[in-house]
Amino acid sequence: MNKDYKAFFGLSGPAFGRQIAVEHLLSHSQIQQLHNLLAATLDHGSIAVLTGPVGAGKSTALRAFLASLHPERFSVIGVGFTTVDRAVFREMAQQLGLVPAFPKGDLVVQVHTAIEQLWMSKRRQTILIVDDAHLIPDPLLVELRQLLNYQMDSATPLALFLSGKPALRARLADPRHEELYQRAPLRYSLAGLSRPETTAYVAAHMTAVGGDPGVFTEEAVDLVYQQSKGIPREINNICVYALVRAGWEDARVVDRKIVDDAIRAQGAA
Description:
Blueprint: H1 5-9, H2 29-44, E1 47-51, H3 58-67, E2 74-79, H4 85-95, H5 104-122, E3 125-130, H6 138-146, E4 158-164, H7 167-172, H8 178-182, E5 186-189, H9 195-208, H10 218-228, H11 232-248, H12 256-268
Parallel strand pairs: 1-4, 1-5, 2-3, 3-4
Helix pairs in contact: 4-5, 9-10, 10-11, 10-12, 11-12
């Protein structure tokens, strides 16, 4: 019984992990469309709304887009979910290289001014990424939208990317967020991969770690697709466990039976 699937299949690292380099990511049609929308958001200094189910690849898609930008033209800051609005602005200030002011009002002004100065002095646009935005409290959503207000009609110092579950769209459609919703003309929902894209996805991840994409039979990928519904994180979970089981069984090919056994074992766990 071989317990190290990486050595068994001659892989340079963990397969189907988050460590995959940007250049090895599969650039399927949804990713290409999303990147075009995000680029338009930068041009207009507006808000982009990215939604999708858990594991659909929102963070990975954003990572790929950000890697394509010139580092001297953009400053990227990111915040996650918290119910404490001051903590969000404190995190933003720290990522901008500031010593955060203590009073909340001063802290917001400090962040707003720093973003403006980056634009005025270096023509560097700031991109603020808010993850799990569907959980952000209503007052904080309003404050984040207000960060886009600058006294420069033709300038775009800040672009705001809101990423979250599909519930985010419903929240933004609420009358309380009408102004924010109007500032967010670019909205995109990531869905599961198609069957052909699933094949390409599995092949890309195997190739990224020096593996043979032919290790997975077409019948095996069929079952991976059916079970995962094309959701990348679910594809990852099934495929890596299938590789582990194949290593245990000294099987050089991952067939439908091995994938089925992996799925059953995961369900039993």
